[in-house]
Amino acid sequence: MEPGPRGFPYYPAMPGDWVSQAALPAGLMFIMFTLGIGLALADFRRVFAHPRAFLVGTVCHFVLLPLVGFAVVKAFGVTGALAVGFLIVAACPTGTTSNLLTYFARGDVALALSFTAFAGLVSIVTVPLIVSFAISYFMGGEQGVAFPAGATMGQIFVVMGVPVIAGMAVRAKWPAFAQRWQARLGVVSAVVFVAIVLAGIARNFALFQQHTATFAPMVFAINLTMLAAGYGLSRLAKVPRDQAITVAIESSVQNAALAIVIGATLLKNEEMMLPGAIYGVLMYVTGVAFVFVGRRIATAAR
């Protein structure tokens, strides 16, 4: 495997590499813009309105999830670029589709929206730090890789932060337009998300077939652990049931599109991208199952 930019292991460019270099980042930027157009500054004030739920969610998402991801990778003996790929997934913010799952599970949708926005902004800082650690731990000793945290932080801000801010600016400037188009853009955003995941799988279908059987138990282990931890810790902290359901979902549904873009585009390593593609498919198995659990919890609480 030949060295690539900044010393990262690099897979030679393929015909149609514009997919990873242009189409995937553009798709992710559109998803983040759609998230931004649905947000107002009032959404961030809910951090202070629901401090316990946000505190538990922050601990679960930014502390416990990377630790669980690391523990699962070690337990299954995964190493190298694939191990880094799993830590990339664990480092990513919650996915926008978590809001839809929260709605169906009868959780607190307003809390989900505000936490998704909060996690997206905080992840601009936390993702490069966690990915830097993962590369140093799993690959640094072998290849002397020096992860460019500052440069990657800037790239992540461009593909995540700028579109969210632009979307919020559009909503503030033209609120009627934003409200009229928000639902339609949300549908297109969901389609774009599916397209990014499918593109990631299609580009490496042989690797996907080879590793899915191994990775599926890892994905389910992470998902189920975080669903249980999010809900259980929330209830221990006396967070209301609907908000506990929200924290559980927000702690387990990741922005797989971002994980794919980081692996395929920023780090130029298709193996690092693969866990994100598999996670992006399988996380909905446990997610949808938890929707039914959440609905039963919400019904019993009435």
TrEMBL record:
One annotated Gene Ontology cellular component of this protein: membrane
Membrane topology category: Multi-pass membrane protein
Location in or out of the cell: Membrane
Entry keyword set: Membrane, Transmembrane, Transmembrane helix
Main location per the UniProt record: membrane
Residue ranges of the TM segments: 22-42, 54-76, 82-104, 111-139, 145-169, 181-202, 214-233, 245-267, 273-293
Protein name as catalogued: Pantothenates transporter PanS
Keyword match 4Fe-4S: no
